[in-house]
Write a structure and sequence with these properties.
α1 packs antiparallel against α2 (33-53). The longest helix is centred in the first third of the chain and has 25 residues, at 6-30. The mean pLDDT is 89. The chain contains two helices and no strands. With 81 residues, it is mainly α. It has a domain at 1-34 and 41-56. The protein is 57% helix and 0% strand. It is elongated. The protein has helices at residues 6-30, 33-53. The structure holds zinc ion. Residues 56, 58-59, 61, 72, 74-75, 77 line the site of zinc ion.
Length: 81
């Protein structure tokens, strides 16, 4: 599988989360429940995306949802990607 730089993984996942929250708010305000359903799909996609790509480039272990650490908690690899 193609590797995505960690910085881009973070940007993409936060964009997906923001989009999901926006869709939930819109769906709630406009009473369009399919928007809320779509938001849940986007949120699940963001979680799956993080689970696949939010990994240390050296040891390959999952970095967790915080993910903003400067070093891998498992092997100490610098995560400035
Ligand atoms: Zn590591």
């Amino acid at each position: 599988m193609k590797k995505i730089p960690l910085r881009q993984v973070r940007i993409i996942s936060w964009t997906l989360y923001a989009l999901a929250i926006l869709l939930i708010l819109l769906g709630w305000l406009l009473r369009l429940f399919w928007l809320i359903a779509a938001a849940l799909v986007v949120m699940v996609a963001a979680i799956v995306f993080l689970a696949i790509f939010n990994r240390c480039p050296r040891c390959g272990r999952f970095l967790g949802h915080a993910g903003e650490a400067a070093f891998c908690p498992h092997c100490g690899e610098r995560l400035d990607g």
